[in-house]
Amino acid sequence: MSALKVPATTRTDVGEKSLAVLRITTGLVFLWAFFDKAFGLGYATQSKNAWFNGGSPTKGFLSRVDVGPFQSMFHDWAGTWWADTLFMLGLLAIGVAVTLGIGLRIAAVSGALMMLLMWVAEWPPAQHDSAGQPTMSTNPVIDYHVIYAVALVVVAATAAGATWGLARWWSGLPVVRANPWLR
Questions:
Q1: How far apart are CA 138 and CA 152, in angstroms?
Q2: 6 burial class (0-12, 13-18, 19+ CB within 10 angstroms)?
Q3: Taken in order 87, 90, 92, 94, is the CA torsion positive or negative?
Q4: 35 SS3 class
Q5: Which of 20, 57, 99, 111 could form a disulfide with 152 if both were Cys (CB 3.0 to 4.6 A apart)?
Q6: Residue range 71-120, pLDDT digits in tens
């Protein structure tokens, strides 16, 4: 039986487009989270709890952290102006950068850090919360936060912004040429 022979150019084209789809969909996850929390679109956030209506995008999640070694730290952060502001600006900036394919390096680092903090808050290694109830964790290491962090690193490392994105234009800007970490 012979192996299927696929021309390298086809594999490259499909790979580039697949990475672009991964980049765009990952960016839209961050943008959706921003818009739902900012305006209360009725999915994870009701209108009355929207950030622009005076609600806190971190209070609900962080105040309910009931597992892991950093539980009290997250409770202290819940609903603070700086946590709300950093979280929302992070969601927006990461979402815009990744969707458009610009600033992927800094978006990958900041997005991976955000996902790490959210992973730590949920603490998947724990089988039971502080009250002794099952956490319902399905995997003690890999969850969706880890997958999003890996996706961000992959799209940055592979320059996925060049396909269906603005990476070429962005890279040509004088400030970006002078500061390659902005790519």
A1: 23
A2: exposed
A3: negative
A4: helix
A5: 111
A6: 999 999 999 999 999 999 999 999 999 999 999 999 999 999 999 999 99
